[in-house]
Amino acid sequence: MAERGEPGADLATQVIRVFERQYGEPPVGRWAAPGRVNLIGEHTDYNDGFVLPFALPQRTVVAATPVDEPLWTVWSEQTGERITFDGEQADKPGHVTGWGSYVAGVVWALRDAGHPVPGARLAVASDVPPGAGLSSSAALESAVLTALADLGRLGLPVEARPALAQRAENVYAGMPCGVMDQAASIRCRAGHALFLDCRSLDLEHIPFDPATAGLAVLVIDSRAPHRHVTGEYAARRAACESAARTLGVPALRDVPLDGLAAALDRLDDDVVRHRVRHVVTENQRVLETVALLRAGDVTAIGPLMTASHASMRDDFEITVPEVDTAVAAALSAGAYGARMTGGGFGGCVLALVDADRAETVADAVTAAYVDRGFTPPVWFTAAPGAGATALS
């Protein structure tokens, strides 16, 4: 049987014990934000395009208490580390590094936007797997942002929060991600996928309940190490932005599908042509997926998922052998569609399967891994969950 990764123990209870152990008193509150998977729409967000993520049951939970000075102390149960920084340090992007940069980045982004951020003691517990393409960093940012907004009674509109969390990651932590991850972690709704226009930030909650159709979304952690840190993600973004300048458009989102061939003819570099083709066709796949889900035809999105993966593999060149093996094995075992999710170079695969065949498909992927000598994958099934919230 495949190794199965279920959402962990009751983090909301665990984080209270963690906080009390570290600070000797109970917290005044707890806040949670989920990880996410992207059903379709990869590397379209920073091209002002369209994405369709949904929130996972796995989440990051923050317990916190305010203090009367601009000082933030954070304990991470995952790493067993404590960090402390003051306002002067928070105001210097890059001063706090590692996982703490996502926390300090939120403080910086709020302060830079003029919000009176309260000092605080915080404890963090999470069952969002790091480095698996499930947006563990966005979950941390979103949970901390939600906690500080409530502690400080900042009156921060929910629609303004994803951009602040994204800015924390872009500027302070130095990761040039788009806004999708933070928007999903903050604004998703249970039983729905989040159809997001990454230019206007307009969104629509699209009903997405595979279980009612007898289906399941199988999430397979490829166990391939995430390789964003090598600069490949930044290189893809730079290529897209350069192509947009050459084509004279604000972003690749503005290249219409029926104008793609003409646009490609104007580009001199074959690699850049491939990058552009992925973005333009991926935006179209998102729109077609949304149309099918609005019509209630969940099974029909499978071929679009598979086409998305082929585009990421062949045009955007962001897959690795482990994820390609997982996709091929899932399809051979009867999945309606399968694709890598996340920024690429490792991470997870989604497979749309009959609910009663989820374990069979996962076992087929595991067998394919054994044949290739890969570390066996971890898997779970995911139903769309809710975004960031305070816990009672």
TrEMBL record:
GO terms for biological process: galactose metabolic process. This is Galactokinase. Keywords: ATP-binding, Carbohydrate metabolism, Cytoplasm, Galactose metabolism, Kinase, Magnesium, Metal-binding, Nucleotide-binding, Transferase. InterPro entries: Galactokinase (IPR000705), Galactokinase_bac (IPR022963), Galactokinase_CS (IPR019741), GalKase_N (IPR019539), GHMP_kinase_C_dom (IPR013750), GHMP_kinase_C_sf (IPR036554), GHMP_kinase_N_dom (IPR006204), GHMP_knse_ATP-bd_CS (IPR006203). Its EC number is 2.7.1.6. Catalyzes the transfer of the gamma-phosphate of ATP to D-galactose to form alpha-D-galactose-1-phosphate (Gal-1-P). It catalyses: alpha-D-galactose + ATP = alpha-D-galactose 1-phosphate + ADP + H(+). Belongs to the GHMP kinase family. GalK subfamily. It comes from Polymorphospora rubra. Substrate binds at E42, H43, T44, D45, Y233. It comes from the Bacteria. Residues 19-66 form the Galactokinase N-terminal domain. Residues 102-186 form the GHMP kinase N-terminal domain.
